[in-house]
């Protein structure tokens, strides 16, 4: 089948959080054809280029979510009619389109600014705010598809005036009502950036309309093309999240350039967008139960959810055995990015307690500062605290002192790779106060290490009883757990072996690929049959997977779906949603850059 993979700031670019997972998914399913629709996050990311793409990636379409200095929008046609007529540039014409644009923006703004809860409509499962949001969102999408991009229009004076009126209307929250003109300008700019996928030229029968299934590698902006593909062509949407975009937005440090009104407006907008994505998705997969619960809080139907753990390469850690303590059994190891969320301060204070009980204990910290100046400052602060808590120790008057705490980076002569870092001690420690899916914890389990972790994010779900878990921000409890394992080598070995067995069962690339292989076939088997008109290649031969296998059998499934259903998966059909037009298969042509090995 033909899969449209939708990414945001990741694959096929060389950097990005979802790059590695998407690359393994595409390479692990060579029986399917992939079209990539990628949104980039920065000019630096684009300049670093793509990873090497496999042969079954037939098309790559890209577009930025950042604003170039020259104001152009790469990857799509320039805004045409609508930008001119709404902003006042060019010839003044198209009064009907101006009225349509204003009406859709007004519906969107009213939904975002309103805070009063007037109940949910039992027929649609939506509240008035969600209904207005979908009315404005899809109205703008249809207008952009018909008349051109909305980039300049959404930043226009008309948009700002509509936002200002909505924030002053009855029912708007007190924080929103206090918004200034500068707040509305800032929110309009952010709104345009997130809604930029509406202005792309991806929504044609030979583009997103030609795929059998859209797979969004995250929620938020990446899922918008999938929403429109379902709206315009009836293509089913699969959404995968290893971290909830809305949760990330809430936990992000407040931007100094945004006041409270802008943050409130953005929070409501992202909430409404997440609700619509989950409502329209045929299936929503979560990387762990912690993410799954967050999705449910944001409106996801539990019946349409499934947990699929992210796959990780176990073979790179296979050389490390449970008893391979290269750095000594009395050594604690920490691996990760040095940032405040990892709470190395608490770990250093806990290690001070460990040293009082076990004078020969050592702590090796492997990591690099997180991006930005904050990570470097935090690392410097941790180094200063370690020097203060643990002065260099010397065995004699003429020997050099050594600090029991070391800060190292993976890749040096002593620790050439990540597996060697985990093998450098007998116990691996995770001290975070905020965590999603703890990758370093899974890697230590592959290495057969006993672990001590804080109870945050998906830690308990990942560990599953094969390690010790303590409350976060509690150095005393962290120290007691470390001391218990340092003093009991048999328990360390037992927990390490159990951890490795659990990781090999649940968290490998193979189990992840098997899960998505089955999900793809399941979703396409429930999809309405595509017409076989023009579903042939250049030689006149039928295209493989242009239609489900049952399309070639006589029966009721070969007939168009009734308008009342309108969804590809009956049990996830959104009540009240407008039926999508019957899709028509078109020849699958490879277009885009043409340099898949870039």
Keyword list:
single chain, 598 residues, alpha/beta, 7-stranded parallel sheet, 6-stranded parallel sheet, 12% strand
What report would you give on this structure?
Mean pLDDT is 81; it is low at 69-93, 116-125 and 551-598. By secondary structure, the protein is of the alpha/beta class. The strands form two sheets. Strands 3-2-1-4-5-6-7 form a seven-stranded parallel beta sheet. The chain has 21 helices and 13 strands. Helix 1 (19-28) links the parallel strand 1 (2-8) and strand 2 (33-40). 40% of the residues lie in helices and 12% in strands.
The radius of gyration is 27 Å
The helix content, as a percent range, equals 25-40%
- From the helix content, strand content and strand pairing, which structural class follows? alpha/beta
Mean pLDDT figure: 81
Large-scale geometry: globular
Distance between the termini: 24 Å
Residue windows where pLDDT falls under 50 for at least 5 positions: 69-93, 116-125, 551-598
DSSP strand count:
13
Give the strand order, joined by hyphens, for the main sheet: 3-2-1-4-5-6-7
Strand content: 5-15%
Query: Sheet bearing the most strands, described?
Result: 7 strands, parallel
Counted by DSSP, the helix tally is 21
């Amino acid at each position: 089948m033909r899969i449209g993979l939708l990414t945001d700031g990741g694959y096929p670019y060389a950097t990005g959080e979802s790059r590695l997972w998407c690359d393994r998914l595409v390479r692990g399913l060579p029986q399917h054809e992939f079209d990539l629709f990628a949104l980039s996050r920065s000019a630096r990311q684009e300049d670093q280029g793509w990873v090497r793409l496999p042969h079954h990636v037939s098309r790559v379409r890209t577009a930025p979510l950042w604003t170039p200095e020259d104001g152009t929008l790469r990857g799509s046609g320039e805004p045409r009619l609508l930008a001119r007529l709404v902003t006042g540039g060019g010839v003044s014409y198209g009064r009907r389109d101006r009225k349509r644009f204003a009406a859709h923006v007004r519906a969107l703004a009213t939904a975002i600014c309103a805070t009063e809860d007037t109940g949910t409509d039992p027929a649609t499962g939506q509240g008035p705010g969600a209904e207005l949001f979908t009315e404005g969102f899809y109205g703008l999408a249809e207008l952009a598809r018909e008349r051109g991009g909305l980039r300049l229009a959404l930043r226009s004076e008309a948009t700002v005036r509509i936002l200002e009126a909505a924030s002053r209307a009855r029912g708007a929250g007190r924080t929103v009502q206090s918004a200034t003109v500068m707040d509305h300008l800032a929110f309009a700019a952010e709104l345009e950036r997130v809604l930029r996928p509406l202005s792309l030229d991806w929504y044609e029968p030979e583009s997103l309309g030609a795929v059998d299934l859209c797979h969004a590698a995250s929620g938020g902006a990446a899922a918008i093309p999938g929403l429109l593909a379902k709206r315009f062509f009836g293509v089913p949407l699969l959404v995968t999240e290893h971290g909830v975009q809305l949760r990330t937005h809430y936990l992000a440090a407040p931007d100094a350039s945004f006041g409270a009104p802008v943050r409130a407006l953005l929070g409501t907008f992202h909430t409404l967008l997440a609700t619509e994505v989950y409502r329209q998705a045929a299936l929503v997969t979560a990387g762990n139960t912690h993410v799954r619960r967050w999705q449910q809080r944001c409106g996801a139907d539990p019946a349409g959810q499934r947990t699929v753990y992210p796959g990780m390469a176990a073979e790179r850690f296979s050389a490390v055995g449970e008893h391979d303590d290269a750095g000594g059994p009395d050594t604690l190891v920490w691996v990760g990015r040095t940032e405040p969320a990892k709470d190395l301060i608490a770990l250093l204070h806990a290690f001070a307690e460990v040293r009082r009980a076990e004078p020969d204990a050592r702590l090796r910290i492997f990591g690099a500062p997180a991006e930005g100046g904050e990570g470097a400052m935090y690392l410097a602060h941790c180094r200063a605290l370690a020097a203060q808590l643990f002065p260099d120790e010397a065995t004699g008057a003429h020997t050099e002192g050594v600090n029991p705490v070391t800060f190292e980076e993976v890749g040096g002569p002593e620790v050439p790779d990540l597996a060697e870092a985990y093998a450098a001690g007998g116990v691996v420690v995770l001290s975070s106060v905020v965590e999603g899916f703890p990758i370093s914890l899974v890697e230590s389990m592959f290495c057969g290490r006993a672990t001590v972790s804080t109870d945050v994010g998906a830690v308990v779900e990942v560990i599953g009883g094969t390690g010790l878990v303590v409350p976060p921000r509690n150095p005393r409890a962290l120290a007691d757990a470390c001391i218990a394992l340092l003093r009991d080598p048999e328990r360390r070995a037992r927990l390490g072996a159990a951890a490795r067995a659990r990781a090999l069962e649940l968290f490998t690339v193979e189990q992840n690929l098997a899960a998505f292989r089955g999900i793809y076939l399941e979703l396409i088997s429930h999809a309405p049959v595509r017409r076989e008109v023009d579903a042939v290649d250049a030689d006149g031969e039928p295209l493989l997977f242009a239609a489900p296998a049952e399309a070639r059998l006589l029966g009721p499934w070969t007939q168009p779906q009734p308008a009342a259903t309108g969804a590809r998966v009956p049990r996830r059909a959104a009540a009240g949603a407008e039926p999508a037009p019957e899709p028509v298969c078109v020849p699958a042509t490879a277009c885009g850059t043409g340099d898949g090995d870039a």
